[in-house]
Structures are given as C-alpha cells and as structure tokens.
Amino acid sequence: MSTLTVAQVGFGVTTQDLGRPGLSDTGLGAAGAADRGAAALANRLVGNRPDAAVLEALLGSVTLRADAHVVAATAGAACPVEVERADGSVRGAASHEVLLLAPGDTLRIGTATVGLRAYVAVLGGFDVEPVLGSRSWDSLARLGPPPLTAGDVLPVGDARVSWPVVDAVPQPEQRWPGEPVVLDVTAGPRDDWFTDDWRAILTGQDHLVSADSDRVGVRTTAATPLVRAVTTELPSEGVETGSLQVPPEGFPVLFLADHPVTGGYPVVAVLTPRSVDRAAQLRPGDTVRFRIVD
C-alpha cells in the first residue's frame, strides 16, 4: 500500500469526506468537509469518487512526503504549492493542478493568501480507519480520525480504479482584499420571531467575521443587531448546516459542518448550499453581506 508521511503541519489538518448523514436522531451531526464544493473538486481533479477522503488544511500550510508514485491535487483556499524532488530540485506548481509525485518527492502547500480551508486529494483517497462509516473528524463530537500531527503516516487507497482526465482547472476568481463576501440566504423557520425590519437590518449593513469562529460556526458582529419580537424562550429544536441562529445579542451565527443537531435560539435565515461553501472560507476580520433569495 502506498503512503504519505506528514512532514509538517501548520495551523491544523484533518481528514474529511462527505460525513455521517442520517445520525442526527442519535445526537450526532453529519460533519464532513466544511467546503464541500472544494473537496469535491479536489477529488474530481485526481479522478476519485466524490466520497473519497481528503485532507482539510486550515490556511493550507502542510507538507507531505510520498513513499511511492502518488497523484495529488489541491483546491479551495488559494495557496502556493511546490514539489521538491528526491534529488533536491524544486518544481513550482499551483493549486487546482494535478501533480504526479514520485517516491521521495515532497509536496509543500504554503499559507493561503485568500480563503481559509485548502483541500488535498490523492488518487485512491486517504485510506484512514473510518469511524461510524466516515473518515471525517467531527470537532464538536470529538469523533473520527484525529487531527494530523508531524510524523503521521497516511495510507492511500487503491489508485487503480480510475485516472485523472484533466491536468488542471482554472482557479476560482479571487476577491480583492477587503471586498465583502456575499452570502445568499432564504428566510428561516423562525423569521417571525424578529421585528418586521429584520430583512433590512440583515441585508442593509456589513457583518464582520469574529475570531471566535471554527468548524462549528462562524460568529459575526455588526453595527445594528437583529431585534427579537418574541421574547419568550424557544425550546430546543433541530437545526441544519447553513442555519443563521441568532443569540440574545442579535448577531447571527452561521452553522457549518460540525454544528450541534439542536439549538435553542431562533433561526432567522438559512444559507444556500453554495453560500455554505463560501462561509467555510471566511477568515476572522472578513466582511460579509447577506442577500435574500427565493
């Protein structure tokens, strides 16, 4: 079996796939890749099925050494990429490019310049031990293959089942530094718990991403909070990925992949699936604008 050795880990790297859907009645969320679109693209680049396990690297910043011939690609956050050959020569590369690694080659993924989460896929997928049918690390439940550390050896699955059909794809259009990220939402199940002007408050101002954000959710602040019209307490009820839950201070929390399965604060709106992926790439200090769609 081919393997990759983790030579260096920067801000945090976990294995992720499509998660564990269907277990919310047991109190367990689906987890899985925070930016599902980027994870799927990385898998498509190397010729994998969509459910193959990838690495999710916070701000990129991970180095992997191959012990056999390996096909790899990165997607998601824009990161500098290079391959150091076994003879010491270095080849510049790029994200969203299919890379052929020979035994002894080292793949270096630098710190992301735009976005938060980069995804690394290898042909055959990362064949780590699944937990409850998934190779995803759930940071809230503390379940699944643990976050990677330097020295870990990652087995690669059977690479003979397919082969890449492209060499590279265009990198996603990058936004200018400081440019707001537009997130589309639909009205949520508890929008009537807020004053009639909640739409104007939500969409009429910039929202700032707080440093207190993670795979569970993205916290935001703004100049004007949302105001509750109903002041009674809401019994805990089920919540979905992409929910904009509003705690008492009035600033939405955007639930991501590792969110709890129930919540006691009203959900004013819900992100579209594409906007969930965008939200997964938000950094602390980024500016968000919400747009209500049908």
How would the blueprint of this fold be written?
Elements: E1 3-9, E2 13-16, H1 36-46, E3 54-58, E4 60-66, E5 70-78, E6 81-84, E7 90-93, E8 99-101, E9 106-111, E10 114-122, E11 153-155, E12 181-187, H2 198-203, E13 207-209, E14 217-221, E15 237-238, E16 243-245, E17 253-255, E18 262-263, E19 267-271, H3 273-280, E20 287-292
Parallel strand pairs: 12-20
Antiparallel strand pairs: 1-4, 1-11, 2-3, 3-10, 4-9, 5-8, 5-10, 6-7, 6-9, 12-19, 13-14, 13-20, 14-17, 15-18, 16-17, 16-19
Structural class by helix and strand composition = mainly beta
User: How much helix, percentage-wise, in residues?
Assistant: under 10%
What is the rounded distance between the termini? 49 Å
Sheet-strand content, in percent, reads 25-35%
Mean pLDDT: 94
| Global Rg | 20 Å
Largest sheet: 7 strands, mixed, barrel
| Bulk shape | elongated
Order of helices and strands: EEHEEEEEEEEEEHEEEEEEEHE
Low-pLDDT runs of 5+ residues are none
**Oligomerization state of this entry?**
single chain
Number of helices: 3
Strand order, largest beta sheet: 12-19-16-17-14-13-20
Q: Strand tally, please? A: 20
Provide key terms for this protein.
294 residues, mainly beta, six-stranded antiparallel beta sheet, 3 helices, 9% helix
Report a brief summary of the structure.
This protein has 294 residues and is mainly β.
